[in-house]
């Protein structure tokens, strides 16, 4: 029986489906919802300006990161149920998901996939593909699929999905 399940969240319909399926099929497991921010999401408007004397100070950059994390945390709380853990990381999505899963002692990773084309994956890479190939624990991949009525009850609130 699964004790701990980490669910990768990116606020897409596919990740909403992954969350619903994890809730349906792992009812007794502790769940951690993990959002991974790209470093560019928390960087200032111009990283070059910091070196040239213009632009934002390191303190302003820290404030910008905190503001970005708080915005994401608020969205995550809309998706979370009372017993769910919520975590935010910054970095490469597949590497951070794998690292968090191992450190937290997860039994399985659950994540949605958008089903991009092979060309798109070749150009930008696929977090899902990387995790399936490299994670040290099982990965359940969920497409944005039609859900049964009982699974729809496990979705995040209306309007919370991008």
From TrEMBL:
InterPro entries: Rossmann-like_a/b/a_fold, Universal_stress_UspA, UspA
Pfam families linked to this entry: Usp (PF00582)
Family annotation (SUPFAM superfamilies): Adenine nucleotide alpha hydrolases-like
CDD domains, alphabetized: USP-like
Lineage: superkingdom: Bacteria
Similarity comment text for this entry: Belongs to the universal stress protein A family.
Full protein name: Universal stress protein UspA
Organism: Thioalkalivibrio versutus
């Amino acid at each position: 029986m699964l004790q701990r399940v980490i669910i990768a969240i990116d606020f897409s319909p596919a990740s909403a489906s992954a969350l619903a399926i994890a809730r349906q099929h792992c009812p007794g497991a502790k769940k951690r919802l993990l959002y991974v921010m790209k470093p560019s999401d928390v960087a200032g408007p111009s990283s070059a300006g910091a070196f040239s004397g213009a632009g934002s100070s390191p303190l302003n950059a820290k404030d910008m990161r905190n503001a970005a994390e708080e915005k994401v945390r608020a969205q995550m709380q809309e998706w979370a149920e009372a017993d769910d853990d919520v975590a935010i990381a910054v970095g490469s999505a597949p590497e951070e998901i794998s690292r968090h899963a191992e450190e937290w002692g997860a039994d399985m990773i659950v994540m949605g996939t958008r089903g991009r084309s092979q060309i798109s994956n070749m150009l930008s890479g696929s977090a899902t593909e990387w995790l399936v190939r490299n994670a040290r624990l099982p990965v359940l991949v969920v497409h944005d699929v039609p859900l049964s009525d009982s699974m729809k009850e496990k979705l995040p609130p209306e309007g919370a999905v991008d």
